[in-house]
Write a structure and sequence with these properties.
The protein has 6 helices and no strands. It is mostly helical and 126 residues long. The N and C termini lie far apart (52 Å). The model has no long low-confidence stretch (mean pLDDT 89).
């Protein structure tokens, strides 16, 4: 008798969806995983650098895992990746990078980031 093990938590289902989106994105942009991670990292840093004035808070967001900036940025950025992959908005790494730079300049990104900041500074120890 064979036993099968299935995880059906929402977290697991979200991870499967994000992995599928990433696979599709890498396929349509002809980009490798390392390039995608580099762009994700650079744009996360740019967002913080452009919207936060205090160096101590910048360092905290980028370096303190308790603040979960990178978790938030991963989810926000991969949500945008879904649209890029589905609508063919980028067909190579350079187009993808340009599209992601556009994302960090959008007012909706600033609003989402401010909402994230409000939440973390309400609950986290900096």
């Amino acid at each position: 008798m064979e036993t099968t093990f299935t995880i059906q938590s929402q977290t697991h289902m979200d991870a499967i969806k994000r992995k599928s989106i990433l696979d599709k994105l890498l396929e349509v942009t002809h980009m490798d995983y390392e390039t995608w991670v580099t762009i994700l990292f650079e744009n996360g840093c740019n967002l913080v650098e452009n919207l936060i004035r205090t160096d101590e808070i910048k360092r905290g967001l980028l370096q303190n895992p308790n603040l979960k900036f990178w978790d938030w940025w991963f989810i926000y950025s991969t949500t945008d990746d879904e649209s890029i992959a589905l609508h063919g908005l980028a067909f190579n790494p350079a187009c993808y990078k340009k599209e992601k730079q556009r994302l960090i300049k959008m007012s909706v990104t600033r609003e989402k980031f401010e909402s994230y900041l409000t939440q973390i500074f309400k609950y986290a120890k900096v």
